[in-house]
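We now fix the convention by which a protein and its fold are recorded. The integers have meaning only within a learned vocabulary of local backbone shapes. A record is reproduced here so that you can trace the correspondence yourselves:
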Amino acid sequence: MPTASRLVAAACLMVVAFLVSGMIMDNGEEGKAYGYFTHINLILGFLCGWIIMGKRAGKGWTAAVNNGLTGVVSLVFWGLFVQGTYEMFRLAMRHRYDGPFEALLAIFQIGVAYGEQLLAPEIIATLAFGALLSGILTEIAWRRWR
């Protein structure tokens, strides 16, 4: 059921996904074509905010901060998984793998390699601040528009 808290959570995680995607592209390899990287992360931000954070609103301020952390961690997890899967399929279509199990293992190897880019201090700070703000704004929306 659509609620204001789901909408606010989705919008907040979309903003976090947009900011972090831009930081990753700025810190990434020069000349690399990122394609739909930001668009996919925006969709994942919307889904994580709507499905994960929005339904958990209304349990207090401490739970709100935990809700924000849960939403951002799930956004990072699904972002790494989806982007790793996309890159694996791109490489698989160029016959870079000898078999299906090597390709499946590559999803996690690529995800770990992408995860290393998230260890920059400005990205960690953005994720932490975004988690805190997302959780609090979602709780405020739940209290204001029940």
Observations:
- Residues 48 and 75 are 6 Å apart (CA to CA).
- DSSP finds five helices and no strands in the chain.
